[in-house]
Specification:
The chain is an alpha+beta fold. The chain has helices at residues 25-32, 35-38, 48-59, 113-129, 143-151, 180-184, and strands at residues 5-6, 10-11, 16-18, 63-64, 70-71, 74-76, 82-92, 97-104, 133-138, 155-166, 169-179. Strand 6 (74-76) and strand 7 (82-92) form a beta hairpin. Helix 1 (25-32) packs across helix 3. The radius of gyration is 16 Å and the shape is globular. The two termini are 20 Å apart. 28% of the residues are buried.
Amino acid sequence: MSLPWEFHPLAGERVRLELLRPDDLDELARMQGDPEICRYLLYEARTREQVVDVLATDSAAVRLAGKGDYVQPAIRGAEGEFLGTMYLELTSVDDRTAELGWILLPEAQGRGFAAESARLLLRLAFEEIGLHRVVAELDPRNGASVRLCERLGMRKEAHILEHMFLKGEWTDTGSYAILEREWQG
């Protein structure tokens, strides 16, 4: 496995993954402050002040070396516009595993930007870093994310009933995964 890994921009046909920067604040706050976007996330809609702190923390996350290290780059469109964020966290160095996630602005949803961005991170995870397994854990009521996992070739491994008490209700967790050999196949 090639660790430590230092962040560098990743380019696809229609998107680029780049570090978050201060001028992303307005769009990031609009996205993370939207209760509908946050409906299936682990946090409630955030205030602009909270997003200021999130932006400072996430923009400084540039290195993967040990368990819990993560990168959360911005997804940018062809003109450099902010579309959302991706997430890749090392969950075990010994087992060569990571977790993948995404959030998009409403106007960027349903247009293939998340799929292209996730493929960039999966390619990075398996071909550059040398991970063995990448998982995505999500609320199974989030049909768009379930369909994205399936399009990425991730297999459903679990549907854990009433896994956590979140936002005033018991919620389920869906677990999807893809192995290095499945990615290469």
